[in-house]
Design brief:
about 325 residues; alpha/beta; TIM Barrel; eight-stranded parallel β-barrel; binds ligand PBG; lyase; magnesium; ALAD_AS; Delta-aminolevulinic acid dehydratase
């Protein structure tokens, strides 16, 4: 690695020389954030003309489709390439077998079709996981002990992913962490002729406490109660395990890898990019957003500077795109 001796040659070597001027700092900047690096997550509600704030995520709103389409006009004009869609499902439609997940007339399916009709160029990413649809808030089907049963869950996930593709989703993003689901989904998509539907696999999804505000936003926190997701999401202590997961998902047909959460897992992002040389995305999750918002609201940090620093940090680590609740703000700040 080190081509040069670390023996100090001061004053011949002065690293500050290059930092002394704005022009030289610009010339040597290794990374740059652009609107092309952003994915904007949105929460969709049933009904009409509804917009609701999410208490633990100031600035994030849950909207009915009509109001969402108005916001997407802004997302498109800001140059953001894609949105990730998360549904808020009425509790009456939640069940043990999560049948609503693959309803052709379901909220996600209707929303995807409407977005693609109005904004054909905007990439639409759908979440493949059952937590919005299960009465217990787990990402899959459970047995009598509450254990999420892998293969039965995968069958439902396949139906869900195919229904998203049929509605027009560009990218399906399994975030459930079942074994073998990427291969099963890929096979079904191929069979149905969806050869260009991309799979963004949440290969390295950790059992994180930083998801708290999201579970409030989609209303799964109450259903989940005190239960956790540790039998399928990964232990935050593990790095190598993520590479096993990623290798499997790539072999099964994933096009992109997602690391989630983001900021506490930059090492995983770095190693993913170094190892696999495939598109790597990061999810700056709800708890990360909430921390930045809360500190900014208190005047403890400079929101714009801290968020842009976090974004360039993601790039430096090797991220190709960042899914962030700050996407619109970042795109706006970059234009200033
Ligand atoms: C689950 C899912 C989660 C998030 C998005 N989809 C996590 C979970 O509840 O386990 C979290 C996103 C965030 O915190 O911003 N399929």
């Amino acid at each position: 690695m080190a081509q040069y001796s670390t023996e100090s040659r001061f004053p011949f070597k002065r690293p500050r020389r290059m930092r002394a001027n704005d022009f030289s700092r610009r010339l040597m900047a290794e990374n740059k954030v652009s609107a092309d690096d952003l994915i904007y997550p949105v929460f969709v509600l049933e009904g009409e003309n509804k917009t609701e704030a999410v208490a633990s995520m100031p600035g994030v709103e849950r909207k009915s489709l009509d109001n969402l389409l108005v916001e997407l006009q802004e997302v498109v004009s800001l140059g953001i390439p894609a949105v990730a869609l998360f549904p808020v499902i009425d509790s009456a439609k939640k069940s043990l077998m999560a049948e609503e997940a693959f309803n052709a007339d379901g909220l996600v399916q209707k929303t995807v079709a409407a977005i693609k009709a109005q904004f054909p160029e905007l990439g639409v990413i759908t979440d493949v996981a059952l937590d919005p649809y299960t009465s217990h808030g787990q990402d899959g089907i459970i047995d009598e002990d509450g254990y999420v049963v892998n293969d039965i869950t995968t069958e439902v996930l396949v139906k869900q992913a195919v229904s998203h593709a049929e509605a027009g989703a560009d990218i399906v993003a399994p975030s459930d962490m079942m074994d073998g689901r990427i291969g099963a989904i890929r096979e079904a998509l191929e069979e149905k002729g969806f050869v260009n539907t991309k799979i963004l696999s949440y290969s390295a999804k950790y059992a994180s406490a930083f998801y708290g505000p999201f579970r409030d936003a989609v209303g799964s926190a109450g259903n989940l109660g005190k239960a956790d997701k540790k039998t399928y999401q990964m232990d935050p202590a593990n790095g190598d395990e993520a590479f096993h997961e990623m290798a499997l998902d790539l072999n099964e047909g994933a096009d992109m890898l997602m690391v989630k959460p983001g900021m506490p897992y930059l090492d995983v992002i770095y190693r993913a990019k170094q190892n696999f040389k495939v598109p790597v995305m990061a999810y700056q999750v709800s708890g990360e957003y909430a921390m930045l918002k809360a500190a900014s609201a208190n005047g403890w940090i400079d929101e714009k500077k801290c968020v842009l620093e976090a974004m360039v940090g993601f790039k430096r680590a090797g991220t190709d795109a960042v899914l962030t609740y700050y996407a619109k703000d970042v795109a706006r700040w970059l234009k200033e």
